[in-house]
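Appendix B. Raw example, untouched.
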Amino acid sequence: MNFMLRTTYCLTLALLLGIQAASAQQLVTVSPGQIRVDGERGVRQTLTWRVASRGGAGSVRAEFVNLDNNRVLETRAVPLEVSGNSGTVSEQLTISTAQARRWYGAGVRRLGYRRTFSGAAGSLSNRVAIDLRFSARLASLNASPAQQTLTGNSRQMMLKWDFRSSGLGEVRAVSDSGYFLRGDQVVYTVEQSLISDGQQRITEVVQLPPGLVARLLADGIEQLQYSRTFTDEKKRQRSASVTVNLRR
């Protein structure tokens, strides 16, 4: 009985070691494993594939896939090959801004660049993850309506901030405060942050405190500028303002 148990154990151990050895003989890795698209330049990146496969392996083509649904978007017939049991091979991955814009416009946010290496020992795949969810440059900012009127009894105004981007992606920008200005002088500060997290338009409601309009009119101030400055993730700033007329 003990002999049978020892025999079974040895056979099981040999089988596991054989599986591990076979697995160790096949390996495909790629560096870098993740890439973020530049909204103004697209992608120009050297990829290095490391392949371990007994007898060598080759890849006849590469595939661009939507990682959210695994759908193949494009195939490129660029062959790569590693001879011997292990080695590395490099290629230049290029994605134009026009191509990235088409995929982005089609709703793709997580793109994969995938290869399958096949040889005598079998086939293995790996891929590079390409993030299309990036911030575009804030090209211009507009505030509307251009004219607002506030009175002692009507101290609230509503305005819209419109963002236009340059290049691919979405504008992510923040404004910490809004300022009522008379020339360069700050008359009143609105301590409320506004954040554009991909939206093309933000609506803001501003309300002045009671008595402020009357005090400003008493000082002879009948017109102000309400201004904000937005800063995007690349530290670029754009400002816009509206004219605010004060009436009794």
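End of appendix B.
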